[in-house]
Write a structure and sequence with these properties.
Elements lengths: L4 E5 L3 H12 L4 E2 L7 E4 L3 E6 L4 H7 L4 E5 H7 L4 E5 L5 E8 L11 E6 L2 H10 L3 E6 L7 H4 L4 E6 L3 H5 L2 E10 L1 E5 L7 H17 L1 E9 L3 H7 L7 E4 L6 E9 L3 H10 L3 E7 L6
Parallel strand pairs: 1-4, 1-5, 8-9, 8-10
Antiparallel strand pairs: 2-3, 3-4, 5-12, 6-12, 7-10, 7-11, 13-15, 13-16, 14-15
């Protein structure tokens, strides 16, 4: 039996990203079949597969040591939980939306009816706004509620806003920014296994938008090269055997800037430029 139990979604948009992240961290998730309710994570941890919305309660109650689910579900559960790591995928927003052909965000002191699946977050949000909101629990496609006359506005998740627009709604305010999170009961719980898991996942995430760049750099342009190579602590330089005019340069750079950096290096007379992916990156 693994010492640490990790609660994971049994289906939905997050699980494939979670599997890819754990694979990259050297912790493949392997069950006896695709329908297995439990699985090994790299032989080090035990995964249990449950509904995404059940994960906060399972972690809070101690049935799982840590879990991965959307931050919106964690906040809606209103349990004493902490985020150990933002996994940077599954990004979405919980928003207030009204009908396109009229309506606006209610002001303090006014009344309204709000259709939503997020009862706790919606009540808390409108209470803070001092709006007398009647929350209408709504399952299924909540976008239809204003058109049926059962609510004046909705609180719902969106990634791009396209579904809301398609259904004649427009966003008026954002309630919460959400993404997949690694959660635990207490941030003071620093068991080595939990620390190791968090560190392994963080090192993969940190490396995903970085590249390792190497080049032979003329000595007389080192100052200019330093200016165009933002590394973690600046570029690393070393001697090139029998190439007195050049030094070898190594740097970690943002992936989105690689093509511009290569152009600048070539313009400065650099040679032998090589760019590789990074599997893990520790600060």
């Amino acid at each position: 039996m693994a010492s640490i139990r990790v609660a994971l979604p049994n289906k939905g948009r997050l699980i494939e990203d979670i599997r890819a992240l754990f694979d990259d961290a050297g912790l493949p998730i392997r069950g006896q079949s695709e329908r297995s309710l439990v699985a090994s994570i790299g032989g080090e941890f035990e995964a249990i597969f449950v509904r995404a919305e059940s994960i906060p309660a399972l972690v809070a109650g101690g049935a799982a040591d840590v879990g991965i689910t959307g931050w919106d579900l964690v906040c809606e559960a209103n349990r004493d939980l902490v985020s150990l790591l933002d996994l940077e995928f599954g990004k979405c927003r919980l928003v207030v939306a009204v009908k396109d052909d009229g309506g606006a965000m209610p002001v303090a002191g006014s009344k309204c009816r709000v259709a939503t699946k997020f009862i706790h977050l919606t009540r808390t949000y409108f209470d803070e706004k001092k709006v007398d909101a009647t929350v209408v629990p709504f399952s299924g496609a909540v976008e239809i509620a204003p058109h049926l006359g059962v609510a004046d506005l909705v609180v719902d998740l969106t990634s791009t806003g396209s579904t809301l627009k398609m259904n004649g709604l427009r966003e008026v305010e954002t309630v919460l920014e959400s993404s997949a999170r690694l959660i635990a009961r207490d941030e003071k719980d620093r068991r080595p296994e939990i620390e190791e898991l968090t560190t392994a996942l963080a090192s993969v995430l940190r490396a995903r938008d970085r590249r390792y760049l190497m080049a032979n750099v003329p000595r007389d342009v080192l100052t200019q090269v330093r200016e165009c190579l933002p590394g973690l602590n600046g570029p690393t330089l070393s001697e090139v055997l029998d190439a007195g005019r050049f030094v070898a340069m190594h740097a970690v750079v943002p992936a989105k800037s690689v093509y511009k950096i290569i152009g600048k290096l070539k313009a400065l007379g650099c040679e032998g430029i090589l760019v590789t992916r990074i599997e893990r990156l520790m600060p």
